[in-house]
């Protein structure tokens, strides 16, 4: 089975440009998560969705960040305008909740973002 | 100047030895715990999980122990191999919190051949 698929794997762009990261979750999973990982702060949850609806976006750094999930098989994380401090590895993960008990989140291999 | 990053705890073991990685969790209401392995350039990979109604769970070469009294979780890896070298994260979750995981800072495991 295909795992979580993220694109692009690497992105290098100049400050001020719009950046769009993409994620395809595992088919059938009803939760989707966006994380950011840096050396300074470790792994941080940015936002997560349940059945395509955003549930908790308290981790989104500021208004420059936005995320959408137009359907069960696709999500985007957008940064506009981008800044050098946004440089990090961004991970998408998905999971399935059954009977109120959570199942493991499965991660993609991330997008390594560098803002110059 | 040089930026200061997280200083990950490091565990160095000899190939073939057993490894024990420890984690202290924060929320006494957490009822689900997971261990992840992250290799360089990859996303965290699920290893094993355990629910709060259990004290121990075993997988292939791995065992997770849960001590709810002191809020402590450990991962034991038997016969550690060079391919086990990675950063290991524990994560906790409270039921009905929508699958939201709280991750620890990670431990770097280095296996010497």
Keywords:
heterodimer; A: 116 residues; mainly beta; seven-stranded mixed β-sheet; four-stranded antiparallel β-sheet; 13 strands; globular; B: 113 residues; Immunoglobulin-like; six-stranded mixed β-sheet; 10 strands; 50% strand
Biggest interface? A-B, 29 and 26 residues
**Overall tally of domains of chain B:** 1
Beta-strand residue percentage of chain A = over 45%
CATH evolutionary superfamily of chain B: Immunoglobulins
Structural account:
- The complex is a heterodimer of chains A (116) and B (113).
- In chain A, 0% of the residues lie in helices and 57% in strands.
- Chain A has 116 residues and is mostly beta strands.
- In chain A, the strands form 3 sheets. In chain A, strands 2, 4, 5, 6, 9, 12 and 13 form a 7-stranded mixed beta sheet that branches. Chain A has a 4-stranded antiparallel beta sheet with strand order 1-3-8-7, with no helix packed on it.
- The termini of chain A are far apart.
- Chain B has one domain: Sandwich (Immunoglobulin-like).
- Chain B contains no helices and 10 strands.
- In chain B, the strands form 2 sheets. In chain B, strands 1, 3, 4, 8, 9 and 10 form a 6-stranded mixed beta sheet that branches. In chain B, strands 2-7-6-5 form a 4-stranded antiparallel beta sheet, with no helix packed on it.
- The mean pLDDT of chain B is 89.
- Chains A and B meet through strand 4, strand 5, strand 9, strand 11 and strand 12 of A and strand 3 and strand 4 of B.
């Amino acid at each position: 089975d295909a795992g979580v698929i993220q694109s692009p794997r690497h992105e290098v762009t100049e400050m001020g440009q719009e950046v769009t990261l993409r994620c395809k979750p595992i088919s059938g999973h009803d939760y989707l998560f966006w994380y950011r990982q840096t050396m300074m702060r470790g792994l941080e949850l940015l936002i997560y969705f349940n059945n395509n609806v955003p549930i908790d976006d308290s981790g989104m750094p500021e208004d420059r960040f936005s995320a959408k999930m137009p359907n069960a098989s696709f999500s985007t994380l957008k940064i506009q305008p981008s800044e050098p401090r946004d440089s990090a590895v961004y991970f998408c993960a998905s999971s399935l909740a059954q009977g109120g008990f959570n199942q493991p989140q499965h991660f993609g291999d991330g997008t390594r973002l560098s803002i110059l | 100047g040089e930026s200061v990053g997280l200083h990950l705890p490091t565990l160095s073991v000899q190939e073939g030895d057993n490894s024990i990685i420890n984690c202290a969790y924060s929320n006494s209401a957490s009822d689900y715990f997971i261990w992840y392995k992250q290799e360089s350039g990859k996303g965290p990979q699920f290893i094993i999980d355990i629910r709060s109604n259990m004290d121990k769970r075993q997988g292939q070469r791995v065992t997770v122990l849960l001590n709810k009294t002191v809020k402590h979780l450990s991962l034991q890896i038997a016969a550690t191999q060079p391919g086990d070298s990675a950063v290991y994260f524990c994560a906790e979750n409270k039921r009905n919190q929508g699958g939201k995981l709280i991750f620890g800072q990670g431990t770097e495991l280095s296996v010497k051949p």
